[in-house]
Structures are given as structure tokens and as C-alpha cells.
Amino acid sequence: MGVMVAKTAGFCFGVQRAIDQVYEQIRTADRPVYTFGPIIHNEEVVQDLEEKGVHVLNTEEELAALREGIVIIRSHGVGKAVYDLLDREGITLVDATCPFVKKIHGIVQKQREEGRRVIIAGDPKHPEVEGIRGWSAADTLVIEDAEQIDELLAGTDEKLCIVAQTTFNYKKFQDLVEKIIKKGYDILVLNTICNATQERQVEARRIAAQVDVMFVIGGRHSSNTQKLFEICKKECKNTYFIQTLDDFNPECVNSVRNVGITAGASTPKQIIEEVHANVRFKL
């Protein structure tokens, strides 16, 4: 019996950077500290920050109502309108946007100015995608599945630029691109899926294909964790989503030879270690 833990499991560079910036403000700020939206998609981390006095603001109306304090832009990034609002109100801003997301903001802004219509491969309701749209034009399209292309695209005389949410499934991105290219569009393809995301997905698929039971650890609202779960489920039918140790059912590992563990980019190391220890104890 054995346990395989993904080497890529846990905080990615962008998430660790964002968390570090918040804790730095907690240590040094002489004013109230806020984040615009949860700093990352992990309820335990957000709760710990709230207990340390960091308040979450969820709307632009709440931002506009501030008269003092420091606002931290979360790792998912925001649209240009939020920066403009904070500048007008004179509120101090700390930008914890993941650098890879920030790069996409610059890409779509430039491509819009050069006359290309932007297509984002991603979840239209995800804050990262909402933020990317906020740097592009009103006609920007967001597509999750290849089936949507026929409904959303018009004449092939239009110049297009396609980018991806940093945590998008790489295989799905390839399928989308291939279908658009076949339609004869003048298209500029920029694969903006984070390298760490691709590596995490490849490793999760490899481990899931070798084990009897697979655990995917992360926040319920974490896009990259949900995609890891989908990938692992295809390789191992006994794949379970765990947010905290309370979700771990010891009976899942009864009479199995090996177990795999991976985790999303916003999953603290402590939770991964707790699940690992309990799985090993049960085995």
C-alpha cells in the first residue's frame, strides 16, 4: 500500500505572492485593510484573514463608500474600472493580481486597440474572466465549450484574438482553437494558461491513472481545483473532492492498494499534510 502526493499540489506562485502581501499589510498598515473579493478561493484562508481584521468588499458600491483604508486587489485581478474608481476616491491600493493574469490584461487591451475582437476561453462567471473582460471591449466573447462557437461567432472577415483563463483546461483550449481555425478566421492564438496549471493537470492525470482512490483538495469555489477533479475523475472513478479534513471519509480507502493526492493552487500546505497523514494512518 502507498500514497502518491503530487509535487505540484498547493499554493502556486501567484497565490503565495497574494497571501504574503496581505499578511505584510496586516503587520505594517496603520489603517483598515480590505480585499476586493476574497484574496483567493479558499474559505479557511479568508476566514483566518477576517479574524486578523481584514474585511472583504464585494461590490464597487462598497469601494466607493470607503473614506480611508488600504484596498488589496485579489490574485484573480479586476477590470480597469476598479482602478479608476480607487484613484478617483484617493484610496490606497495594493495590487496582488497574479502576474500571469496581469499579463493577460495587457494583451487584451493591446489587441482591442489593434482592432481584434477578443475571445476568452474560460468561465464567464469567474472573477478572473470578469477582470480580463474589464480590460477589453464590449464585444469580447467568453467561451467554455467548442459547441458555443457556432452560436457566438459571425462572419469570417473579423480578426480575432483568443486567450485563456489561466486555470483553463489545456485540452479544451486546444479543441476550441482548432474549431475556430477550421472556420477560416484571421486568428491570433495566445496560450495564456499558466505553466503551473498545465503541470498540475498533467501530474494529476498521471497519478489518478495509477491509483485506486484519488483525493483532490481545495476550495469549492476554486476553478483550478474543480478542473483537477474533472481530470482525475476521468482517470479514476473513485475520485473525491475534499475541502477540509472533515470531508475525508476513512472508508474510502478500505481495502485499496494505493491512493493519490493532489490539491488546487489555493490550498494551504497544512490541509494537504493533514489529509496525507490521515490517509497513511488508515492504510
SSE order and pairing:
Layout: E1 2-5, H1 13-28, E2 33-36, H2 43-51, E3 55-57, H3 60-64, E4 70-73, H4 80-89, E5 92-95, H5 99-113, E6 117-121, H6 127-133, E7 141-143, H7 149-152, E8 159-164, H8 170-182, E9 186-189, H9 195-208, E10 213-217, H10 223-235, E11 239-242, E12 258-263, H11 269-282
Helix pairs in contact: 5-6, 9-10
Brief digest:
The chain is of the alpha/beta class. Helix content is 42%, strand content 18%.
Structural class: alpha/beta
How many distinct helices?
11
Low-pLDDT ranges: none
Q: Count all strands and give the number.
A: 12
* Amino-to-carboxy terminus distance: 7 Å
Shape summary: flat
| Helix share, percent | 40-55%
Strand order of the largest sheet: 1-12-10-11
Largest sheet: 4 strands, parallel
The chain-level mean pLDDT equals 92
Q: Strand-residue fraction?
A: 15-25%
Order of helices and strands: EHEHEHEHEHEHEHEHEHEHEEH
Radius of gyration, in angstroms, nearest whole number: 20 Å
Descriptive key words:
283 residues; flat; alpha/beta; four-stranded parallel sheet
Would you mind describing this structure in some detail?
- The structure is a single chain.
- By secondary structure, this protein is an alpha/beta fold.
- It is built from eleven helices and twelve strands.
- The chain has helices at 13-28, 43-51, 60-64, 80-89, 99-113, 127-133, 149-152, 170-182, 195-208, 223-235, 269-282; strands spanning 2-5, 33-36, 55-57, 70-73, 92-95, 117-121, 141-143, 159-164, 186-189, 213-217, 239-242, 258-263.
- The strands form three sheets. The protein has a four-stranded parallel β-sheet, with helices on both faces. A four-stranded parallel β-sheet has the order 3-2-4-5, with helices on both faces.
- α9 (195-208) runs parallel beside α10 (223-235).
